[in-house]
Amino acid sequence: MNNRFARALTAGVLATGLLIGVAQAQELQPIDRIAAVVDEDVILKTELDRAVANILGQYAGRSEQLPPRDVLERQVLERLILLKLQVAQAQGTGVRVTDQEIEQAIAGIAQSNRLSVDQLRQQLARDGSSYADFRNSIRDELLVQRLRQRFAQTRVSVSDAEIDAALAAQANTGTQYHLAHILIALPEGATAEQIATAQKKVDGVKALIDKGEMDFNAAAVRYSDSPNALEGGDLGWRSVDEIPAAFADMMKAMKAGQVTAPLRGPSGFQLLKLVEVRDASQSGPQMVTQYHARHILVRVNDQTTEAQAKAKAETLRARIAGGAKFEDVVKESSEDLGTQSKGGDLGWFMRDEFGPEFGGAVAALADNEVSQPIHTTAGYHVVQRLGTRESDVSNQSKRAQVQETIGRRKLEEEWNRFLREKRSEAYVDFRMGKGSEGNQPGTETTLPTKGG
Q1: Cβ distance 349 to 290 under 8 Å?
Q2: pLDDT digits over 66-75, tens only?
């Protein structure tokens, strides 16, 4: 039995069991229809309705920019399918999120909206949303974030040679480009007929934009197959090293507001719009204060409580105040194995490099002064500040920024490829709407015409 058939059989049995259970309970509660079966999970109609309502709320007063209801539901359903696949992948590879982390995230959301958690609960209730559903959505978001972080650590690397090449390319320009795109997707191994249909569709979309019958953002919302379609295809600001070379040369020759001719890429046909251009170059030195310090660390763990760790750190500080050599106490008692053999030396660092609590305490010391125990997530530190200096970190900062942007571009490319693979391998059975006839991603083939 091949894997695809096995998944289909399992999902079919699961869905059948759920339907039987619903039928047996129909006298007790309304039937919650299944919108789609995704491998061994399901997306319920209520989930889809909530997600669609959220989009409608975001576009309040601009509903004319949204596609017809059935197309919008299909776009949102595809998002939910990808979310289910990512959550399943995260859970299947050992990614976990604790209840405490979920509560902390919710508290952060409430605080950013100037609400208490109780007020947030009340707001959700007024909006007709369940707190349990909201909490589950936060859990899923955290799982996907962790999965993406793990993916970046194992699949993405940036070499010094790549950084050097990008810096050389930027030597005479600090230009950044604000881009948006429309994607007309093609499946892996697309047939000549599928390619021709997609070509015809992208040509039709381009014609609508060129004639002024629809602006780019509205066309992206209505016709793009990209995950960011409902954001108008916005790709944000990109520097030259964040844009594929073939596109970067094209952007340099374009003016703000212009749209490219259809471009064929690995995922289908694209239209790219240059929204804005800006000069983000940084001139002159970037002077910062750096600190030189050494430390002793007492960790908090299963064997050592917070109180015990703090008490031990206070004892070690008292020994130093009584005349013991700092480096001797480090070798005897510090639990930071990375600096223990160097007498606890941390080298030169910027204030918040080891966290705001640590940096703030070091900044408040005089040279050669030894701190009281400093509490951080690592445990309790006793720190001696050895000196300060003003340093130009412009080159260091530029290299770090370039490394980040190249890494972000690579991650985006690899992650999107990974999602396409997961989607193509998944068993998806649509139970409602236009998609119910197949198990592959919907590709709306109706050509755009005036008036949509």
Answers
A1: yes
A2: 888 888 898 8
